[in-house]
Amino acid sequence: MKDAFGMPQSLLVLGGTSEIALATARRLIARRTRTVWLAGRPSPALEQAAGQLRALGPDVHTVPFDALDPESHEAALGKVFANGDVDLVLLAFGILGDQATDEREPVNAVRVAQTNYTGAVSAGLVSARALQAQGHGSLVVLSSVAGERARRSNFIYGSSKAGLDAFTQGLGDALHGTGVHVMVVRPGFVRSKMTQGLEEAPLATTPEAVATAIEVGLRRRSEVVWVPGALRVVMSALRHAPRGLFRRLPI
After folding, report:
1. Which residues are catalytic?
2. Most CB atoms within 10 A, among 9, 39, 227, 248?
3. In degrees rounded to 5, what are phi and psi of residue 196?
4. How does DSSP classify residue 170?
5. What distance separates the 2 farthest-apart alpha carbons in the chain?
6. What is the value of pTM for the model shown?
7. 25 close to 33: Cβ distance less than 8 angstroms
8. Average pLDDT over all residues of the chain
9. How far apart are CA 180 and CA 186, in angstroms?
10. Sequence-separated (6 or more) residues with CB below 8 Å from residue 180
């Protein structure tokens, strides 16, 4: 169960090597999270992440999980929930892809969509049903400002995040009043391994800053969190910009 301050004592991360997720886990561990499950493809990186968190004091476990294998999600996540209640599920997996390459190779584009959207729909629904069955908990989904309006430079990734964002908002509406809290997190450009080598966008942020925003959002039981907050105004303007103007913007 959550502690007196509303912070989770148990955490399940879907995408156990995500820098944002691990920064969030470290922050929550400092606030009394005592059990952490890292779900991801078995790899040295996953075990290393588990070891680093374990050194901070909590019980840390890994569980095999593949976003591209929806048929395995119920069994994989069921093992976690069978070990006790989960206060927070953080859905943090996703891939950026390479826009130029993916336009030439549609199979690559489909992999982006299947990972970021289809896999997330499956894992999100399985997690939501388990949280609802236990009668409490939060589901936090990492979306992106890229989903607010498709840009020429990354519309494949952006469209997958747009679908994920809409799905998560609808799921939150469906779970309203059940005791399950759903929160969408919309970071801008995050300085991480995934964006290494890319030109940095204005209002760039860090995994640690996103983690802080997630903690604040959990305390407030927010439904949508922008990181940084100024992006809410920026993206509102871009979303309503006439299409002819939008095409000429250097974004």
Report:
1. 157
2. 39
3. -60, 130
4. H
5. 54
6. 0.92
7. yes
8. 92
9. 20
10. 128, 131, 132, 136, 137, 138, 139
